[in-house]
Design a protein that fits this description.
Length: 137
């Protein structure tokens, strides 16, 4: 999706008002960090169709070929003490679940947070965790 296509679907005042969309990147997080260091405003969104040097928790690496994942990073500047920043990933994961359920009601009750930062689907009959839907760093 282009930046214009994304913005046309948003009804936010801060998040996603500035969008940097790329065909390919090493890492959306690295690009977002550079933009943040250069003074990009809170809510700036970085997205790519393909990512080659993604990172997860504990130094895990991964890649995302074109069309395989939604790969985004969002610049946040929360008014929090440094000691409280560890709460941000699970809070964002909960917010992601609420947003997904709003736009896809069939997911209500079928998503869960796997501590500290993953969003998983839940099996409809068993309640067993299903597939990883998102990771929040």
């Amino acid at each position: 999706m282009t930046a214009a296509e994304i913005q046309a679907r948003l009804d936010t005042r801060v998040l996603g008002r500035t969008i940097h969309a790329y065909a390919a990147l090493g890492s959306t997080n690295d690009t977002a960090a550079r933009l943040a260091d250069s003074g990009a405003p809170e809510g700036t969104l970085v997205t790519t169709e393909s990512q080659t040097r993604g990172r997860g928790r504990l130094g895990r690496t991964w890649s995302a070929p074109p069309g395989s994942n939604l790969t985004v990073s969002l610049i946040l500047r929360p008014p929090m003490l440094a000691d409280d920043l560890g709460l941000l990933p699970p809070l964002v994961a909960l917010g992601l679940i609420r947003g997904l359920e709003r736009f896809a009601p069939e997911l209500v009750g079928r998503l869960q947070v796997k501590w500290p930062n993953d969003v998983l689907t839940v099996g409809p009959a068993t309640g067993e965790p299903g597939r990883k839907l998102a990771g929040v760093l």
